[in-house]
UniProtKB/TrEMBL annotation, chain A:
The keyword Zinc does not apply. It comes from the Eukaryota. Transmembrane segments: none annotated. This is BSD domain-containing protein. It comes from Hymenoscyphus albidus. Residues 142-201, 222-273 form the BSD domain. The lineage of its organism: Eukaryota, Fungi, Dikarya, Ascomycota, Pezizomycotina.
Automatic annotation (TrEMBL), chain B:
Keywords: DNA damage, DNA repair, Metal-binding, Nucleus, Transcription, Transcription regulation, Zinc, Zinc-finger. It is found in: Nucleus. The lineage of its organism: Eukaryota, Fungi, Dikarya, Ascomycota, Pezizomycotina. Component of the 7-subunit TFIIH core complex composed of XPB/SSL2, XPD/RAD3, SSL1, TFB1, TFB2, TFB4 and TFB5, which is active in NER. The core complex associates with the 3-subunit CTD-kinase module TFIIK composed of CCL1, KIN28 and TFB3 to form the 10-subunit holoenzyme (holo-TFIIH) active in transcription. The keyword Nucleotidyltransferase does not apply. This is General transcription and DNA repair factor IIH subunit TFB4.
């Protein structure tokens, strides 16, 4: 019954010891000297609340609320820590362990995936699993639409990055009906954009890793003096990646001025060595730094790597040991040889630097709380799969069916042509066709070939323009050819305006940029509200019917807004016409000549606005119509 | 002054536009032609087409042409004719049409072959063939056209050693010197929804091969052919006046790809992008797409199981009966009645349900 964490505490005015039992299942208070049967034991699972006197209070007390599953009400226990030496410390120790255990239990209850799925074995383990489950929560948030929808902070930062989205949001917020609360609006707005939020959340949570910092620092020599920009973070990184430099700095900097240290370092042979450059005889010497040239470089991260439990199967160094060294035949490649640093420094340096950078990156796939021994997954990962024959294919099977099989009622709908076809008698169709292509009826020449000039029906001399009514139009007649030409030219014309007319001026169709911008915004918000409408309308949730009625009001107001833009556009156009008239009048007064007013050449106006918004207006009508139809179906008078 | 030696001229010649291959898909649906007969009989259309073909052949000495008929139950090559049994060869030489001194012999050859094949096709069509369908084998014909183009392109690059070998990547760089191929569909029938999938497949194949599909629509309306021409950057024309067919052919469809780069094509810009559902071949405004196999359905399938790949799908709230009346508790129950049962519920159906 020994406890791992305990403290002297009085319970009901009796001195004793409060501690957590070895199995971490319960909290136990043992009275001093008395037998164990007077002990108080509280199952940790039953603890509902903890209260403690504040740090500053002279008395150190811990109040525990216990409610066992079958007890109707919670029971409170008050412990008074009265250790003569350090009551506060003991109380905190007990409380911390208790808190961890409780939260671990709760986490398990909530079936939040913990690191290893088993009950935490120690407080440290509980901490570790708490950390991992927190990471799990963050990741899970990306997949949870509801979490994204309520994450105001995320939404705000997204809108900061995307001004047009922000514009739409603000405009929609401004024009929303008062009956919809801000939070309702917010959730509606974002519910159609969870994908954007998700992408943004994922994007912002990614960070850049560290880089080879020594090669990033580029000292410049100006007038024989070394100039360089080196930031605090870079120094931090240098120390991280090269503990040797940290050591050199430590041992020298009080003596050496900081600036001098760095500028001399970047000129030194040591720098070249660490960077992986070849040291040549002409390189200047610097006794302060050259001392360290032979120092065994940077063992820190390597030690950390070694500290990791590397399974023997993939531990190459372990193999070397087992093999008993490589004196004989299997001589390693010279880049891999221990003492060839001087020969191929760059390869070694880059390798070791990469190793170090990787060592500093928190592994994403390793759970520090995992047991040291090998679990099944690791074993599977290490198994020599090449020797195991073909592995089973791990694919999701799609059972594609022949599509023609499920066309239940193939000819359910018949087109207009098909209906006409049905009226024709197949025999007649066939005989007519045979007659038509019969050589005797196809303007064959004497020689046997087709006389194309007459077959195509173009009669050169026929100036049918004179009396078009008299002639029955035939294939190739002048009028039909002209008509065809006209149609093609119309197509060319409209296509050309499409290609050439894409510049700003004509795409506005005569509207001023201001009106056009307003129209764009109105369009965006209308679309937004339509989105919301359909979302609610099709949700089939009767609880949202009230919301739906409000949405319909919004749609009606959207129509008003379009009209208001149209009216302003009309006013704008009237103003332009008025100015034109004024010009004409001025011109008339000056010269006595009257210029014609071509008002149709002046674009813009409400008509253009309505043309541009026509599809939107149609969808608005459709939405309200559907709503009214649904209302009528429920027997409610919509008039 | 440097140009006096005229090397420019030779180089320019070498870089000149290559020949083009025109594959015509002629819709020979008897029903549709019977309806069209008063305004544009098939025979007249063929004559117009022959003039167009001759014009195409005349515009480059290496231009090629092929014609495939999209008939009611099959697709048939009209030109070039499939290899005839050996004994027919002699007969062909004696064909009177070929001895016409007033006709350029290559033109006469095509004309003879095309007319012969067409007459054969019509004479072998039975009443039963006509009465059992009202549409045409457009997808099959497009496939034939594409295979022919593929073969011709390979042959061409084989024979021209200097030209770049055909790239094996699907959407290779635009070849300006090789054989430029295009397809012209002369369409008279609608109701192609049943061939939606194969037509779209050939369309995408043509897009990758950079083969434009031009559509000349004499009658009927099909959204998919419009999409085919739009996707492949071809020309789509619905004729207002079928009697002016020749004018349309010569003005709108004669230029090859090289010339089209410098021309404004008279294509109709409004494209109907709707698709047909896989379950009833209906053209749909709003459809449901399986997230696994991308099949399109006009309504959510029974039990939310994809008809094509049998995947259980989650439908969310969509498609529930709109609830517009909130108030009374009693009414709510009644409203909600259908939703409560698992079969029509929006959520993910479990496999064991
Ligand atoms: Zn369907
Ligand atoms: Zn599917």
């Amino acid at each position: 019954m020994a406890s791992i964490t305990k403290g002297s505490a009085a319970y009901k005015k009796k001195d004793g010891t409060l501690g957590i039992t070895q199995n971490e299942k319960s909290l136990q208070w043992l009275p001093l000297g008395a037998s164990a049967d007077k002990a108080v034991t509280i199952a940790i699972a039953d603890i509902t609340n903890l209260q403690q006197t504040p740090e500053t209070a002279p008395k150190v007390m811990l109040k525990i609320f216990e409610k066992s599953p079958d007890a109707p009400e919670a029971v409170t226990h008050l412990f008074h820590f009265n250790s003569p030496s350090n009551p506060r410390g003991e109380a905190n120790a007990v409380k911390d362990v208790l808190t961890n255990l409780i939260s671990a239990l709760k986490a398990k209850d909530a079936s939040v995936p913990t690191a290893n799925g088993s009950a935490p074995a120690s407080a440290a383990m509980a901490m570790a699993s708490a950390v991992t489950s927190k990471q799990g929560l963050v990741a899970a948030k990306w997949f949870d639409d509801n979490a994204l929808k309520v994450d105001i902070e995320l939404q705000q930062s997204l809108m900061k990055k995307d001004p047009s989205l922000h514009g739409t949001y603000m405009e929609a917020l401004r024009t929303k009906p008062d009956t919809i609360s801000n939070s309702q609006f917010n959730s509606q707005f974002w519910s159609t954009r969870t994908n954007i939020l998700r992408a943004f959340a994922v994007e912002t949570s990614q960070k850049k890793g560290s880089y080879n910092v020594l090669s990033a620092v580029k000292p410049r020599q100006v007038d024989g003096e070394l100039k360089m920009n080196i930031s605090a973070e870079q120094i931090q990184l240098i120390f991280n990646q090269h503990p040797l430099i940290k050591r050199v700095y430590d041992e020298n900097v009080p003596k050496l001025h900081e600036n001098e240290f760095w500028s001399r370092f970047f000129l030194s042979r040591l720098f070249k060595k660490l960077k992986g450059e070849r040291i040549v005889e002409t390189d200047g010497t610097d006794p302060t730094f050259d001392r360290y040239l032979d120092a065994t470089a940077d063992i820190g991260p390597i030690q950390r790597l070694l500290g990791l439990h590397i399974p023997n199967v993939i531990d190459l160094e372990g193999n070397q040991e087992n093999q008993g060294g490589s004196k004989g035949g299997n001589r390693a490649d010279f880049t891999m040889r221990q003492n060839s640093v001087a020969k191929v420094p760059i390869v070694r340096i880059l390798n070791s630097l990469s190793e170090k950078i990787m060592a500093n990156v928190a592994p994403s796939d390793v759970d520090p709380a995992d047991p040291i021994g090998m679990d099944e997954e690791t074993f599977n990962a290490l198994a020599l799969r090449d020797l195991q024959g073909d592995s089973e294919e791990n694919r999701i099977m799609l059972n594609i069916k022949q599509q023609s099989q499920f066309f239940a009622n193939e000819k359910s709908e018949v087109s207009a042509e098909a209906a006409l076809y049905a009226k024709q008698v197949p025999a007649e169709v066939l005989s007519n066709m045979r007659f038509d292509v019969n050589p005797q009826h196809m303007n064959h020449r004497v020689g046997g070939g087709l006389d194309l000039s007459s077959a195509i029906g173009v009669i050169e001399d026929s100036d049918s323009d004179e009396e078009p009514e008299k002639k029955v139009p035939h294939v190739g007649s002048k009028s039909s050819l002209n008509d065809a030409k006209d149609q093609i030219l119309e197509g060319v014309k409209s296509r050309r305006t499409e290609i050439i007319g894409s510049d700003a001026q004509s795409s506005l169709s005569g509207l001023s940029q201001k009106i056009f911008d307003r129209l764009t915004l109105t369009h965006a918000t209308t679309t937004e509200f339509l989105h919301h409408f359909w979302l609610v309308f099709l949700s089939g949730d009767p609880d949202r019917a009230g919301e739906l009625a409000k949405m319909v009001e919004t749609l009606e107001r959207a129509m008003d807004r379009i009209n208001s833009v149209a009216n302003d556009a009309d006013a704008e156009r009237d103003e332009i016409i008025r100015r034109h008239k004024q010009q004409i009048r001025d011109h008339f007064e000056r010269t006595g000549k009257k210029l014609p007013l071509n008002s149709s050449a002046i674009g813009g106006g409400g008509k253009v606005v309505r043309e541009m918004m026509e599809p939107t207006i149609k969808t608005l009508h459709k939405a309200t119509k559907e709503y009214k139809k649904a209302l009528t179906a429920e027997g409610i008078d919509t008039s | 002054m440097d140009r006096v030696d005229g090397t420019d001229h030779y180089e320019g010649d070498k870089q000149g536009p290559g020949p083009s291959l025109l594959v015509i898909v002629l819709d020979t649906n008897p029903h549709a032609w019977a309806l069209l007969n008063p305004t544009l009989p098939l025979s007249k259309a063929i004559s117009n087409l022959l003039v167009f073909i001759n014009a195409h052949l005349a515009s480059h000495n290496a231009n090629q042409v092929a014609v495939v008929a999209s008939h009611c139950h099959r697709s048939v090559w009209l030109y070039p004719r499939p290899e005839p049994p050996s004994e027919d060869v002699e007969m062909k030489d004696n064909a009177p049409a070929l001895n016409d001194a007033n006709k350029y012999r290559p033109f006469a050859l095509i004309e003879d072959s095309l007319l012969t094949s067409l007459r054969e096709l019509i004479s072998t069509t039975t009443e039963n063939d006509i009465s059992t369908t009202n549409t045409t084998q457009m997808a099959g014909s497009l496939t034939l056209a594409l295979t022919y183009i593929n073969k011709a392109t390979l042959l061409f690059s084989d024979s021209n050693v200097t030209s770049e070998p055909m790239s094996t990547t699907l959407e290779g760089p635009e070849n300006t010197t090789g054989l430029q191929s295009r397809i012209l569909v002369i369409s008279v029938s609608g109701d192609l929804a049943h061939q939606y999938i194969p037509i779209m497949n050939t369309t995408f194949a043509a897009q990758r091969m950079r083969v434009p599909i031009d559509i000349l629509k004499l009658a009927g309306d099909t959204v998919f052919l419009q999409q085919a021409s739009d996707t492949t950057k071809g020309i789509y024309m619905q004729l207002r006046n079928p009697q002016g067919l020749l004018q349309y052919l010569m003005m709108a469809f004669l230029p090859d790809q090289t010339s089209r780069k410098n021309l404004v094509a008279p294509t109709q810009e409004v494209v109907d992008f709707r698709a047909a559902c896989f379950c009833h071949r209906k053209v749909v405004d709003v459809g449901f797409v399986c997230s696994i196999c991308l099949s399109i359905f006009c309504s959510p399938s029974e039990g939310a199981i994809c008809l094509t790949c049998s995947t259980h799908l989650a439908l969310g709230d969509y498609g529930s009966k709109p609830a517009v009346v909130p108030r009374k508790k009693k009414k709510k129950r009644k409203l909600n009645g259908g939703v409560g049962t698992p079969s029509s519920r929006g959520g993910t159906p479990m496999p064991n349900e």
